[in-house]
Nicotinamide N-methylase
Amino acid sequence: MSSLHAAERQVVRGSTRARDVLPGLRLLLADEPLTPWLATEQQSGRVEGPPFWAHAWPGGLALARWVLDAPEFVRGKRVLDFASGCGVSAIAARQAGAAHVDATEVDRFACAAIEENAALNGVKLNVRGDDVIGVDDGWDVVLVGDVFYEDELSRRVASWLRRLSARGAVVRIGDPGRSFLPMQSLACEVTYPFSASPAWDSVVDRPARVWSVP
């Protein structure tokens, strides 16, 4: 167990349960956000953000399914899973044969959840807690799921992804078509019948899509 996130990993284990989300891939998840949210605040003694890490979001599931269906895109490659959440896309990339996967999250409880889920699936990930927007560590493949919720953040992320794509990285976005997704500049690669739970999200009536950044 990572000593850095030992207490947080205990919170993750105590407020979730393991379930199958894709063939051969299990995650520690919660049915609703309140239980893990209260658990994080009890552990930290302060106000915490929503526990987005305790749900398998449709964009992340779509990316994971795409990676498992087309492992040639990641096999032997260096992969970034940005805003990894529960780690589903990162885990799928390792299962599909990626040589190295950076899973990034700025929420320490999310980092703990990724570590727990990686251990649950028997894969090794490099979990990073730094903000990598604007960073280029030479990744071959960049996966981005369910991040286009806010205008300013979406603009920053989209600009960064375009730069990564321009220098040759394969960039894929998993998203059901949220308000700030720049769909006009993307190409839809595939659609999957994944949707969010009403307990977690208001966007529950759209399929999840994998988009490429040209």
User: Anything to note?
Assistant: The chain has one domain: 57-212.
